[in-house]
Design goal:
Blueprint (H helix, E strand, L loop, with lengths): L1 E6 L2 E7 L5 H14 L8 H4 L4 H10 L5 E7 L5 E9 L6 E9 L8 H15 L4 E7 L3 H9 L3 E9 L2 E12 L4
Parallel strand pairs: 5-6
Antiparallel strand pairs: 1-2, 2-3, 3-4, 4-5, 6-8, 7-8
Length: 178
């Protein structure tokens, strides 16, 4: 999938990752883990040790069948955001939104909304009716963003895997009606 749109005066392109963009995927993911360590279930320390071959394998696995990853590119051709989705293993009518991140210089510009919309379009194509995500309780900006685009808290909470003193909230949205 390839989406191009104007956000204000800025042109942004969203593309599904492929083997040609595996190194860009690696770069954006590592930047995201460094910039926002509490936003992800993994860590920079863990993923920075992966080989390029492992990044290519991850990229190949996200072919859109069971999971997908999108990168956003700014008008200068620089990657400025990431979002991914995967089908629930037990319930094919549900998918999960993960790895949403926008570079600091591109925040508040609509890039996040465009990335999430891309995952929603993919999920609809897989006949998914509900999209869930987990967000840490200390990330009020992300919680507000997800609420603005139609997600609500389900009431399910769990400890954040990298720091059990932090709580994660599950949020969900119905997507077939959109």
């Amino acid at each position: 999938m390839y989406i191009r749109g104007f956000l204000g005066w800025t042109m942004v392109t969203v593309k599904q990752i492929d083997l040609a963009s595996a190194i860009d995927f690696k770069t954006v993911r590592l930047n995201a883990l460094k910039d926002s360590p509490f936003a992800f279930g993994s860590t920079y320390e863990k993923e920075s040790h992966l080989s390029d071959a492992e990044w290519q394998k991850r990229t190949a696995e996200r072919d859109g069948t069971k999971s997908i990853t999108y990168l956003a590119w700014d008008q200068n051709g620089q990657p400025c955001g990431i979002a991914a989705g995967f089908l629930d293993a037990d319930n094919r009518s549900k998918a999960h939104l993960v790895s949403v991140w926008v570079a600091p210089e591109s925040r508040q510009s609509g890039v996040g909304r465009l990335l999430v919309s891309s995952v929603i379009i993919w999920a609809k194509s897989r006949q998914v009716s509900r999209l869930n995500l987990m967000v840490t309780s200390n990330n009020q900006t992300a919680i507000a963003f997800y609420q603005r685009i139609g997600f609500t808290k389900t009431g399910r909470i769990e400890p954040y895997p990298n720091d059990p003193s932090v709580t994660e909230f599950e949020m969900t949205t119905e997507i077939l009606a959109r």
